[in-house]
Amino acid sequence: MKFFRRHVGVAVLVAMGAVTGITGVTAGSDSTELQQRLDGLLADSRYQGSQVALVVRDATTGEVLYDRNSGNRVLPASNTKLFTSAAALETLGADFRFHTDVLTTGKTYGGVLAGPLYLKGYGDPTSLESDYRALARQVAATGIRRVVGDLVADDTFFDNRRLGNGWSWDDESFYYSAQTSALTVAPDTDYDSGTVIVESAPGATVGAPAQLKLIPQTSAVQLVNTSKTGPAGSAYTLNIERDHGSNVVRITGSIPADDTGGQDWVAVWEPANYAADIFRRALAAEGVQVLGKIRTGATPATSRRLAHDESMTMAELMVPFMKLSNNMHGEALLKRMGNGDWDRGLAVTRSYLQSNGVDVAAMRMVDGSGLSRMNNLTADGIADLLVAAQREPWFGAWYASLPIAGNADRAIGGTLRNRMRNTAAANNVHAKTGTLTGVTALSGYVTNADGRKLVFSFVSNNFMVSPRPIEDAVAITLASWSDRADVPTITPNGQRVAPAEAELECSKQKDC
């Protein structure tokens, strides 16, 4: 099962990022010694039979201080988001906002709207149930109390490709691989668009079905519950799975009577219908009755607008997108840059990267999130962007959106909050993580012990035992390095991370 409950896994994450710390002190800390330290870390047996790329540069001059295979193409996972986010800030602007409209072609007679109501999305990946309530209040404020017509969900601003090229079929029902739609709903303030939360708890008695609740409440998703409540202390085997091609979610297995309950995220099939259902419920709560059915369609150009909602700014959106590595935000941004078209968005992104010295001929980028295994980037290209981005007017917002090592505040530390704690890298390393099966990546900024700012990109592929402790040790080494004083030798711990744990980015576990 690939759903992850919010209340489990923190101890695992801390262990995954642990390093043993100082094992010795050596004298003379010039760049040659730095190269020796990094060479020693990359000689770890965990890299046998795998690929690794690491480049370190001076952030101001771009001078290369260390290079191991930086020109080789590697699978970057969520380091792809560095490219998407930078291009979006440049193309759309830090003050850009998504929006959602309610429109009609009908006329109103004494509180009755004769004609359909159109809910038109423009790609907002942060739309919450509360935003649809706000739209419903605006409609009610016009005096409309009854709609004699259908509620039409319009997601035509985006193309109809719901999933990215090369996305894995067995991830399709899981929230981190949700469908991309111009009209969608997020169930939480992580803004996991296109998903619902299934909240579960033990039944009242042993043998009773598990108690379930949908967040938000919607009839767009059907729960089929054949689960049971097991005796206290029994095994937890509850499984929550959506049927392919439908919104039937089946709950099977057993939940112990003494379990505290939890939440699981499920990707919704065709999110536009889900959004329309949430909006229809919001209208009813505001005293507006829709007599027709929910259907999909395009809004006529002759429609007049009844209500309008705007998202947070692009600069604000960068925080949940980058801190929590939200895949669906990456795809929404990519399509928006392409005026709704995935391929045009990719072309816009490549054009921006090329204008900043990134060798786009040496890379392949097929999505905005890094979920696809068809992506191939180079550590050199990532470092090129990291150096160039510092000149951009939006750099402050972008830099602030990167996860910060060892900072326990989830909104600040993000996917690095449980890594490199109590080291020289803590509250120092600002970097984007990346994780897929057999892939781990970390690229960003670090200030060394002399106050010298560095950029680095570190990507590992095709390993059998996770080298993430080495990844952390490299970052700590860079943070500890000084030209003027002895520097400790940092060594990774010898703990073997279980394969299933090593394959999951912190964002996918929902307790990060």
UniProtKB/TrEMBL annotation:
EC identifiers of the protein: 3.4.16.4
Keywords: Carboxypeptidase, Hydrolase, Protease
Superkingdom as given in the UniProt entry: Bacteria
Name of the protein in its database record: D-alanyl-D-alanine carboxypeptidase/D-alanyl-D-alanine-endopeptidase
Gene: dacB
Recorded family membership: Belongs to the peptidase S13 family.
Molecular-function GO terms, alphabetical: serine-type D-Ala-D-Ala carboxypeptidase activity
Lineage: Bacteria, Bacillati, Actinomycetota, Actinomycetes, Propionibacteriales
Annotated source species: Kribbella deserti
Pfam families to which the protein is assigned, alphabetical: Peptidase_S13
NCBIfam families: PBP4
Keyword set includes Protease: yes
Enzymatic class: hydrolase
Database matches in InterPro entries: Beta-lactam/transpept-like (IPR012338), Peptidase_S13 (IPR000667)
Gene3D superfamilies: D-Ala-D-Ala carboxypeptidase C, peptidase S13 (3.50.80.20), DD-peptidase/beta-lactamase superfamily (3.40.710.10)
